[in-house]
Amino acid sequence: MRIVVAGGDGFCGWPTALHLSNQGHEVTIVDNLSRRKWDEELHSNSVTPIASLEDRVEKWKELTGNEIKTFIGDLNHYDFLREVFRQTEPEAFVHFAEQRSAPYSMIDREHAVFTQQNNVIGNLNVLYAIKELAPDCHLIKLGTMGEYGAPNIDIEEGYIEIEHNGRKDVLPYPKQPGSFYHLSKVHDSHNIMFACKIWGIRATDLNQGIVYGLHTNETKMDPMLVNRVDYDGVFGTALNRFLIQAATGHDLTVYGSGKQTRSFLNIEDTVRCVQIAAENPADKGEFRVFNQFTEYFSVLELAEKVKKIAQEKGLDTELAYLENPRIEPEDHYYHAVNTGLRELGLEPHLLTDEVLHDILQTVIEHKDRVIKENVLPSITWK
Ligand code: NAD
Ligand code: USQ
Questions:
Q1: Where does the NAD-dependent epimerase/dehydratase domain start and stop, copy by copy (predicted)?
Q2: Which among 367, 370, 326, 374 is positioned nearest to 42, based on CA atoms?
Q3: How far is CA 26 from CA 23, 43, 83, in A?
């Protein structure tokens, strides 16, 4: 298939582009390289040293003979996006290209406005480009489990049957997101659902949990292909942050009681979920929703797991309970359904001690790159 991966220079997008290319698909990456610029803005970096996008795709071609075309530009620039569609004629458009940090979106008004403009308008442009230039193209959009929040009932995949005053309907599952970033994903979901209804677009919203790990079979093929890994208080995410903190002798930063529960998946499963979605497209006019995660844990459970593994490696790791910089429920019910992707063949890579050892070993090798001042959280929701 001809597949565009927007955001293909990022943490999820790069390994996904390689994986799809390795499966024989004709892959094109679109990215404006803004994630690298946000590192400059925050005086931060990836723990792993990452090559330029140009060098990455050149190395990939040298190793496999597969060409990945690249377009450097912004989804918010519609003329640019149209040109991408004209030249690539995509059968699937995988959309990772958004500002994805909740804390970044909560810095101040400018960052909240930027996040929603970048994400919501970029996605709306993609919908219009599909309508105008590739009406049969399947949109595979990365949403997030955080769109649902933490309701006191089970979380279904996108829809819920409701009975009210003696009548029944299947309705979009209620959304209670916890940051201006998470809200941008809710707005995207609504726009996509509407576009499917009025224009007959086919779309899959992948409500993804928190992704951990860094390597996939493809990124391991050469140091030039290594994936980025974030650890700072803005872009770093829970489990990866704890592993990097353990590697550098920092206490593990549990926010509040740590009882807040989230869903997780290994980056190796992200790339397979996208492949499964691409190879099993939604029907025309269908707005299909999958919850893309394999397991859920409380933050405290993860910190305890990392502490145990770190101590086995002789590291002196302890937990630090910090005042929670976010406004979020800490003690709550959590049960979410994730059958859609499993039914289409996903075989999860679960979070075993071996997996934790492996990631910890890699980050230990690069620990000197960690800028210690960036580890503690600096942004609050208040
Ligand atoms: P990332 O920041 O590493 O990658 C995003 C990429 O998109 C970057 O390379 C960036 O330069 C590019 N980009 C951003 N805005 C763009 C624009 N307007 N035009 C062109 N390119 C643009 O993020 P990630 O961790 O790879 O996340 C990818 C997607 O998956 C996001 O949509 C995110 O919301 C979703 N997601 C991520 C996680 C996670 O744990 N990382 C979990 C759930 C969902
Ligand atoms: N947390 C800690 N300590 C830390 C970092 C985080 O206790 O050092 C807690 C947070 O308070 C929160 C939970 O861990 O309760 C998750 O925080 P996170 O930063 O790992 O993840 P989040 O902000 O939700 O965002 C990440 C990605 C985002 C994606 C989302 C998936 O950055 O792009 O959408 O995970 S989900 O959480 O399912 O919505």
A1: 3-291
A2: 374
A3: 9, 36, 17
Give me the half-sphere count of Cα atoms (radius 13 Å) on the Cβ side of residue 304: 8
- The CATH number that domain 2-374 falls under is 3.40.50.720
Query: Does ipTM surpass 0.95 in this model?
Result: yes
DSSP annotation of 249 reads: T
> 254: Cβ below 6 Å to ligand 2?
yes
Determine contact, residues 94/138, Cβ cutoff 8 Å. Answer: no
Cα 124 to the center of its chain, rounded Å: 19
Q: Which among 120, 265, 121 has a CA at the least distance from the CA of 206?
A: 265
- Please work out whether the CB of residue 98 comes within 6 Å of at least one atom of ligand 1: yes
Q: Which atom of ligand 1 is nearest to the CA of 9?
A: 9
Query: What tens digit of pLDDT does each residue of 143-168 get?
Result: 999 999 999 999 999 999 999 999 99
pTM: 0.98
Domain boundaries along the sequence of the chain: 2-374
- The ligand placed nearest to the CA atom of residue 235 is 2
